[in-house]
Amino acid sequence: MLHDSLGRRFHYLRLSITELCNFRCNYCLPDGNPCDTPKDNLSKDEIRTLVATFAKLGTSKVRITGGEPALRKDLPDIIEICKNTPGIKKVALTTNGFSLKRQIHDFKQAGLDALNVSADSLDPRMFAAITGKDTLEDIMQGIDMALGCGIQTVKLNTVMLKQFNLADMQQFFTFIKDTPVTWRFIELMQTGNNQQFFNQNHVAGDSLKNNLLAQGWQRVIAPKHAGPAQEFSHADYAGRIGLIMPYSKDFCQTCNRLRVSSQGKLHLCLFADQGLDIRHHLSANDIQGASTAISQLVAGKTAGHNLQQGFTGATQQLAMLGG
Ligand code: SAM
Ligand code: SF4
Question: What is its EC number (predicted)?
Answer without folding.
Answer: 4.1.99.22
